Structures are given as structure tokens and as C-alpha cells.
Amino acid sequence: MTFTPTRLGRRARGGVPASPGAAAPPPAGPRRRRFRFERHALPGLLLAPLLAVVLGVVGYPIVRTFWLSFHDGEYLRTGPWIGVDNYADLFTDPYFLAALLRTTVFAVVCVGATMLISLVVALVLDAGPWMARVVTVIVLLPWAMPRVASGIVWKWIFNDQYGIANWLLTGLGFSQFQGYAWFNSGFTSLVAITIAVVWHSVPFIAISMLAGLRATKGEVLEAARVDGAGFLQCLLRVRLPMMKPLLTILGVMSTIFAYQSFDHFLVMTTPPGGPSHSTEVLSLLTWLQAFTVLDQGTAAAMAVVTFLLLAGITALYVRLTKEDR
Q1: How far apart are the C-alpha atoms of 158 and 9, rounded to whole Å?
Q2: CA 7 → CA 13, 29, 217, 255, distances in Å?
Q3: Under a CB-based contact definition with an 8 Å cutoff, are residues 103 and 194 in contact?
Q4: pTM, whole model, 2 decimals?
Q5: Of 286, 299, 274, 117, whose CA–CA distance to 197 is shortest?
Q6: Taken in order 177, 182, 184, 187, is the CA torsion positive or negative?
Q7: What's the Cα-to-Cα distance from 23 to each of 11, 19, 33, 38, rounded to whole Å?
Q8: Under a CB-based contact definition with an 8 Å cutoff, are residues 267 and 288 in contact?
Q9: Is 170 exposed, middle or buried (0-12, 13-18, 19+ CB in 10 A)?
Q10: Dihedral pair phi/psi, residue 10, rounded to 5°
Q11: Tell me: the pLDDT tens digits for 53-87?
Q12: Is the separation of the CB atoms in 213 and 205 below 8 Å?
């Protein structure tokens, strides 16, 4: 019996039988042009309306802020072009430099505390179904509360006369907290605000970590347990390294949340940023400069500095993640 190859078994040119795994050649003529259009041009055309909306909603405000930062924008109008004078004034302004340092320290403390507490909460939620059902409801309550409302609640918690914080500390034997005024000092004000911000940030990070912990359950974890690894060894040497990409993303998000903290500072301090400018952070100082002093140019420069700082931190996180792959 002789085997005669058909046209489907040959290449388009040369009459050589095509290999089983070879890709089909592109069509010729009008069909080829249509193939190229559907392959290359059509996806871009379909995404163009969405990209236009994203650029309009996100891109235009960023470009406008950059443009305004090079102008003397006083009294809610764009003034003359002054170049980098706004930036030069910022980095010689002691209030801005103090706010920049204060915001950085605040962000480091908030991110560290949020990640650590969220990991503990996620481990508790991962312990068992009964514990997960009970704790999940408690954990999600802060997330459901608006930031302004939570700021008001925490301001009452740290009230010097009626706050539960002083009552608990006094009951534990710390008599110096009897009638203690938390918001008369910059340091204690920042302590109270940090507690409120961490309390509000933990739910999202904890639920995300819980998803990551449950994704690490598999053959690798079972093999580590068979080899005699305990709970801490499995956590530190198996589960957390496997969660490193997720932890990097959560670290970036927590840093951005901390740098953008505004509501709690506005609500919990009187006047905003007090006492004596000791709780002014970048977001609050930008708002005060824009809508109290009405210096739009300097406020735009502050916003640009914050944007570039966060972009640099995000790029550093991404680079560290790529180097570990």
C-alpha cells in the first residue's frame, strides 16, 4: 500500500509534509490583511475608549498638578510661570521638611504595625472554621466604618475626661493617665492617630494575607511537616517566602495608605495639624496650603513631591520583587 499525502499534509509551498506541531501559515491576500487587522489593530481599537477614560480621569489631574506647580497659583487661580521657585521654597521651608520627616516616620511605624498585626490576625483566621467565623466579623467591622467616623470615635476614646483609654490605663495601675490630655502633645497625638489608622487598615491587609496563607497549603507544606518542621519553621521558611510577592504588594499599598492618611489627622487634631504644627503630615499640609492659605502653586508642588516619593517607593518594591525571581 502506498501513502499519498494530501494538500492538508503539505506546506503551502514546496510540497513537503508539515510537521504535526507546526503552526498554520497566515492566510494570503485579503484574508491576510484581515488577519493582521484582527491580530494587531482590533485590540487597540477596542481598548481605546477605556484608555481615553483612564487618561482623562487619572492622567489629566496629574499633568495639571505638575503644570500648576511651576506657576504662582495664589487665590485659586493660575498665576505667572515661576519655574522651580515653588520647589526651592519647599526645600528651604522648615515646616515642610518637618512634615516630610514626620510623614516618613509615621508611615514606617504604621506599615510595620499593620503588617505584623494583620499577619497575626490572618493566622488566627486560618486556625479553624469556628475561629474564622467569629473573628472575621470582628475584623471586618473597622473596614466598614468610614474614616471620618472612625476618627471621631477614636478622638472620644482618647478624650481626657470621658475616654475609655484613660479609664483602662488607670484601672491597670497607670495613675498618671488619670485625666491625661492626649492631644495637648504632638507625640501622644501621633500615638493616638497611629492606633486609629492601624485599626482601620488591618482588615483589608489581614483578609489578603489570609488568602495568601490558604494558597500555601499544599505538598510543600506537608513535606516540611513530615521532615519535622514546627509551626514557626513552616511559617518563616515555607509559607512567608511563598507569599513574598503578595507581601510586597501589600507593603506598597500600606505605604501609600499611610502617606495619604488625611481624615484622621483632620478630625482628631484641633486645630488641624496642632498643637503648634506638631501633627502636620504631607497630606494635611497640602490641604492647608491649598484651601486655607489659598496658595495653589505651593500646594501643587507638595502634591508632586508626595507623588514622586510614592512612585520611587513603589519602584523600589517592584525591583526587589523582580530580583528575587
Answers
A1: 81
A2: 10, 19, 52, 62
A3: no
A4: 0.82
A5: 117
A6: positive
A7: 11, 9, 18, 18
A8: no
A9: middle
A10: -110, 160
A11: 888 888 888 898 999 999 987 766 778 899 899 99
A12: no
Is the separation of the CB atoms in 258 and 279 below 8 Å? Answer: no
Q: How far apart are the first and last CA of the chain?
A: 56
157-163's contacts with Cβ under 8 Å and 24+ in sequence apart are 158/182, 158/183, 158/192
What does the DSSP 8-state code read for residue 145? S
pLDDT in tens, 117-136: 999 999 888 876 666 677 77
CA count, 13 A, side-chain hemisphere, 51: 6
Sole residue written with cell 501622644: 188
* H-only helix segments in 126-185: 129-144, 147-157, 164-171
* Among 325, 298, 237, 228, residue whose Cα is nearest residue 84: 298
Grid cell digits, residue 220: 510543600
Per-residue cell: 142:
473597622
> What letter does residue 159 receive in the DSSP assignment?
-
Please give the Cα distance from 248 to 230 (Å, whole number): 25
